[in-house]
Predict the structure.
Amino acid sequence: MRVKDLLKTILFVLFVVFGANGATAKTQSYVSGYPQPDFSPRAVLKEVEPNRPIVSMRRHSYERSLELYMEFLKDDLGWPLLMDDRGEKLPHYFFSWGSNRDNRPIAYVYDWPLAESYPAAHHAQFIITFLRYYIFTGQEDWRQRAIQLGDWNIAHSTPGDCKYPYLPYTLYRYPDFVQQLMIDKAPQMGLAYLELYNFTDQQKYKEAAVRIASTLAKCQRPEGNWVQKVDINTGEILVPYTSNVIKMVEFFNRLADVTGTAEYREPAERAWRWLIANPVKDLKWYGGYEDWSDTQLKEGLQWLDTVWTVCELVRRRSENPEYIEMARQQIPWIIKTFGHWEPAIASVQFDKVKPEMQWGNRALLFKGVAPNFDESTVFVPTNECTVRWGLANAAMYIGTERRENIYLEYAVSALNCMTYEHLDDGRATYILNDVTGWTTYYGLCSAPVFYTLDIFRMLPELCAPGENHILDYTCGLSDVRYQAGRVAYSTKHAGREMVKLASEPKAVKLNNRSLKKHEDAEFKGDGWYFDKSVSVLYVRHKAGGVETIDTDTR
């Protein structure tokens, strides 16, 4: 091994030893000497080489990467499942945030007090990812796993008599919950509960979401934001600021839609006004990961909620013409602050392992955080951050009415990178083309799926041609089946679906009744429209039932 490669390996070992996903190692960056392009805060993405690092070829289809990530998530890795306090054996992602290179869940790597997971953020993301992947593939197992996670978190929320009742715990150290709570993670679980309610019609999920909303509404600050970290028993505020309120906005608005209670929109609008007036303008995107110290939370820049905010600004662009420009200004800030330019042949054994990869120039990858508290800290780019970057650009491409192709190029490049950021068994890697299989977060396996499925909904033309996949829905689906010549599913209520098809369907039926074919995507009432340019079917129905899409063109 060359000295340079050996040095990289040693530095990465230090990273794993001292922490991950926001953890730190006191040394210099593992790749150095490559100048960063100068993006001023007011600049729009430059389209002049060499500042367009595009990965032009994927390793295999995006769908294949998603399949591998998901298979790794449910692999027991040959280790016994742990039991919770009720004696139920549960998958490793309940209790371990990841596994190490020897295929040992973290619960089997460290002593018991250090076996830990992050329910509020990771479990919530798992639930939504599992449900979306269920409709994408028709694999019922993922729907059941989402329900299992939801039921467990309802049963293990903060007690009703504490200072912050009925919220999901931020950190679980087997077999106990840490009594310090990150308030900003709670609405993510609220959204997950509402999605479970959408799929099952079971009131317990809606009631759990309402309880979360009641607690969050009471602790909203007059300005419209929330504190980040508290002690649930004493009520002490441990970290007073976080920029992460966008999920609060989404949660309260979604709850208003589900319950028909307009009062939930008031905290959402207050939070939105605060968001627009503060981090969107001053770029103080603070408040980070569960494994950060209080000092790091107060001083470390991060951009998870920045991307979610960009997506919401784009979605609400008809409300205010300035929203697109506000979203646009976040992009150069993200690049300048978190971007990492990986030169070709930079990773360990790249030229021997991945010779088929084609580069436009250099790959633009992303790290999750940019700490102000210690400039010598190493934060390694991850697949989750790079695909998240792709989502921001997909949103901007839609927001600019598909006119600014640089956003599309960056979105595609991010997805292409994602196909190289895992091993053949689906284990997510921290470094592009890493072949060693270091410790990985389960969240680094679910997040690329979570964000990629969002990108597919925005840009369905990026799905593999010749395949059938349900990409979007309004009413939760059940009994999803992909059969030869047919796609079928059931809904309990009126709704709309978006389905990527290999070819234009012969017929679309609801309860064996053919729906009307329309020639315009803006049709009213029951029926369907097929957009040949992207091979996507749009279905609308005023009642629930069994829906079948006859795709047999013989």
About this structure: The chain has three domains: 1-82+278-464, 118-242+244-273, 469-550. The first strand starts at residue 82 and ends at 83.
